[in-house]
Write a structure and sequence with these properties.
This protein has 509 residues and is α+β, with helices and mostly antiparallel strands. The protein has three domains: 2-28 and 337-499, Multidrug efflux transporter AcrB transmembrane domain (Multidrug efflux transporter AcrB transmembrane fold, Up-down Bundle), CATH 1.20.1640.10; 40-116, Alpha-Beta Plaits; 180-309, 2-Layer Sandwich (Gyrase A, domain 2), CATH 3.30.1360.200. Helices cover 53% and strands 20% of the residues. It has 14 helices and 19 strands. The strands form five sheets. Strands 9, 10, 11, 12, 15 and 16 form a six-stranded antiparallel sheet that branches. A four-stranded antiparallel sheet has the order 7-8-2-18. Strands 3-4-6-5 form a four-stranded antiparallel sheet. A hairpin with a 3-residue loop joins strand 7 and strand 8. Helix 11 crosses helix 12 (398-427) and helix 13 runs antiparallel to helix 14.
Length: 509
């Protein structure tokens, strides 16, 4: 059994450079503390309700003066006459039941509607959970090994990406909202002022003005054109099935996308009804392109722009992973260089080697041949520990190295308990074989009790700790299990091997 476990450990561990994942503090990378703007998710829900209510009132020809949103995210519906109040409330009950009236009936024909408190909390919680899933999907497709992505507190998300060589690209990938919409173009002009002048100085009802995405690297430069778009997006990024990098007709990087079944149906209907009109492809409120519809299109399309290959690749990733439900704000951004990680590895290994060497020397000097047996068991213990880390795909951090050093101490402590018990038995005049048997059996309870107590602490640290604390907890917990195995099984096996077939009168201990 011992040989089999050693073989499995070596198989998992070799080659160690490829099998052991180093943490952020050992190989460098990026640490991000993000905050999901949950209030924006609530605001988006209220805006959607406002647009829906306007559409329903116009469809049912219910007269109203205005619908606006106040600072508290309440819908303010100013009706034209009192009788229409009951009709509006019926629409709310049937379609927007998560809204409730916030003001008492009055003679000013004003309805104040707001989200229920439980709905607000649910929207905020869902926004954080969905952001967590979306970021994890993006990072998984980015190809980072063993990323740490976890929630912290009410609306914070911690992201640690070890070994990332381009921190700015990683931040852009993680934080990009990636809201994709397909909207019909009503008009366009080189400047926003010129565009509005054509329409009486204001944005017509049911439309919005959005800029063209700047040329060059995303986010740089000024928009070269502004578009007046129909506000309603009949097709969105939620209707996509896949997105991949490709090339446009000029062999420039682009992103090709494919719709799911429902998306194909909606996009086919949209393009068939609007041939010879422009359709804007909008990403995060910027128009990437606005091609003219020449024929009915159903299942696929292409986003073109001034992309680099990396930008096109990252855009495909975020479109596949889905849009964030609300913007995320970077609260903390730390980049750890690989040189610092190499120093940490060197110092950590040096400390572990020095500690292990002192332990080995002490055991041989103080316990002689038995100390040598303990050292062999210790080497097997460390090999099993590293093999388990590699097998489980755990990440080794600097606190994890400290956990390995602590494991060495605990393993030696278990052997010292056994050896002292054996000495006591020998002092009582027992034979060597009897002393060894009694020493192991009587030390067993103490060893198991001490190690299980520490294991419980390690489990609690793993459950409630974050980042480096979890790294320490993982190596500590695995180290305790390997220590119990080597102290109880391996050391005993080596003693039995030494005593088998021989009538030993004295023991070097």
């Amino acid at each position: 059994m011992i040989v089999i476990l050693l073989g499995v450990a070596v198989w998992f561990l070799y080659p160690p450079k490829d099998k052991i994942n180093l943490g952020l503090d050992l190989q460098g990378g990026i640490h991000l503390a993000l905050e999901v703007e949950t209030d924006k998710a609530v605001q988006n829900e209220v805006v959607r309700a406002k647009d829906f209510l306007e559409k329903e009132l116009n469809k049912d020809k219910i007269k109203y003066q205005s619908i606006s949103i106040d600072a508290d995210q309440h819908l303010l519906v100013q009706l034209a006459d009192p009788p229409s109040e009951s009709e509006v409330l019926k629409i709310i009950r049937d379609n927007l039941s998560h809204f409730e009236r916030k003001n008492a009936a009055s003679g000013n024909n004003l309805l104040v509607l707001g989200l229920e408190d439980k709905t607000v909390q649910a929207i905020k919680e869902n926004a954080v959970q969905q952001a967590l899933r979306t970021i994890r999907n993006r990072v998984d497709q980015f190809g980072v090994r063993e990323p740490i992505i976890q929630r912290e507190g009410e609306k914070r998300i911690i992201v640690e990406l070890a070994g990332v060589s381009d921190p700015e690209r990683a931040k852009e990938l993680v934080g990009k909202t990636a809201e994709l919409r397909f909207q019909l173009v009503r008009d366009s002009a080189p400047t926003q002022e010129e565009l509005l002048q054509r329409h009486g100085g204001k944005v017509p009802e049911g439309t919005e003005v959005l800029p063209q995405a700047p040329a060059g690297k995303t986010g740089e430069g000024k928009p070269s054109r502004y578009y007046l778009l129909e506000k309603e997006a009949k097709v969105t990024g939620a209707d996509l099935k896949d997105a991949r990098t490709s090339q446009d007709e000029f062999n420039m990087p682009a992103v090709s996308f494919e719709f799911n079944r429902e998306g194909s149906r909606k996009f086919g209907a949209l393009t068939e009804a609007n041939i010879d009109k422009q359709l804007a492809i909008v990403l995060d409120n910027k128009v990437q392109s606005a091609p003219v519809i020449r024929s009915k299109i159903t299942d696929r399309g292409q986003i073109t722009g001034n992309f680099t290959f990396e930008e096109a690749s990252d855009l495909a990733i975020v479109l596949r992973a889905g849009a964030l439900p609300a913007p995320v704000k970077v609260l903390e951004d730390r980049t750890i260089g690989p040189s610092l990680g190499q120093d940490s590895i060197r110092l950590g290994i040096q400390a572990s080697i020095i500690g292990a060497t002192l332990v080995v020397i002490f055991m041989i000097v103080y316990y002689k041949l038995s100390g040598l047996i303990a050292n062999i068991a210790l080497a097997i213990n460390i090999l099993l520990l590293l093999g388990a880390l590699a097998g489980f795909g755990a990440t080794l951090t600097l606190p994890g190295i400290a956990g390995i050093a602590l494991t060495i101490g605990m393993a030696v402590d278990a052997n010292i308990l056994i050896f002292e018990r054996i000495r006591e038995e020998l002092d009582l005049g027992k034979t060597v074989r009897s002393a060894v048997e009694n020493g192991f059996s009587r030390a067993l309870v103490t060893i198991v009790d001490a190690n299980l107590t520490t294991l419980l602490s390690g489990i609690i640290l793993f459950q409630f700790g974050t980042g480096p604390v979890k790294g320490f907890a993982v190596t500590l917990s695995i180290g305790i299990l390997t220590t119990l195995f080597t102290a109880i099984t391996v050391t005993k096996f080596l003693f039995d091997l030494m005593l088998s077939g021989r009538n030993v009168k004295t023991l070097s201990i």
